[in-house]
Fold each of these.
Amino acid sequence: MFNKIIFYFKISTTFLRKYTIISDQLVQWEEARVICNANHHGLASISNENEQQALEESVAASGVASDLWIGGFRLIADPTWKWARTGGNISWTRWAPLQPDGNGLCMQLTYSYLWDDDSCIDFKPFICNV
């Protein structure tokens, strides 16, 4: 079974968000998406600065010091980035400088907590919405 680190945090006074960081399984992006969809509520999606900050704090507290898959993706013929969980376009972003650079079709949260496009076939730990 997976090693899960679960974090709860408040985004506002009425909304509580929860993520699970799967740190002991290194998988490709599609497998991470399947696992998160089957056991949680999809790969992590981040829609504003508060969610980004809370996720950064959660990852830092977990002790995981590597890049992690999150739920952003794009199709080869479409430059628009979307969230896998909803299929909706990504409107708020936290890309690393000079990113996305066309290096990949899947999104990772880097060890410095910025977003980067990467090859979907790389193996990484991942973050699920719960």
Amino acid sequence: MFLTDRPLAAMKEIYLAKDIDKAQVAIKAFEIDYGAKYPKAVAKITGDAAVLPVSG
């Protein structure tokens, strides 16, 4: 299963977040919006949330 433009844009919001708080908000939004359709992607992102780098 391939991610489409909207989920990819949502993931971009996560990895381009300016600080950890904004990244966590983006992660939660991704989980809510795409959890049902892309459970493996959501599990990976939420599982790795503590180690995701934050740009800035």
Amino acid sequence: MVANTRPIRSFVRPPATLKHLIGKALTIHPAVEAALKSGTVVIIAGTTNGYVAEEINARTGQAEGFSRKRFFRGITIPPGVPTNDPGMLHDMSEFMVTCGIGSRPARTSSPSPRSRAL
């Protein structure tokens, strides 16, 4: 006999809604808050990470000019979209190199000792 069982509830949400939620949650995570105050936050490209970067940029007043539309590492494209031989899009001009918070020129020196990987 199983005592005190509670029904399991499932909630279905669109992926974009959940990615927004992840972005908002990570923005207030203690490790992220500490890094924002005392170091550098580096966000690797990825569709979910685009939402994280968008939320952090908004929180730090650096949202202007940032777009998560091209902030991904891989992409699945529908059949028939033209690509080159390696399977990449022909026009890559809209892709950004991002470093730190927002889009900035890539640093050539070694990272600060205060930098933290999250």
Amino acid sequence: MPSNEKPRLIPTGKCWCGCGKDVGLGKFFAAGHDKIAEAALMALKYDGSVAQLLHAHGFGSHHSVRHAAVTDPDCSWEKCADCNYSGAPASIANHRKKDHPDRHALAQAIRALGGT
């Protein structure tokens, strides 16, 4: 398996945070327990510090994790066409509605008329 390929994970029917709760079909976590597991891992491996997490993976003020996410073809992150904001596609859509409402309305009108 190439280094950028991730293994296919199979839900087990039990919460992956380790609490032992039964979870629904196709789920890895009980409601909210993904964040509990994330916080526990951050505390365990990075002293609860996002700066330590970024540093451990080679990111920081010298190497932007945001830029890496936007430019990686295997990552779905995007950059807003109107400013320096970046995030997941749904986050970009919410950002554009809130911070660029005129441009968002114009883009919707163009799409409604069959444009791109």
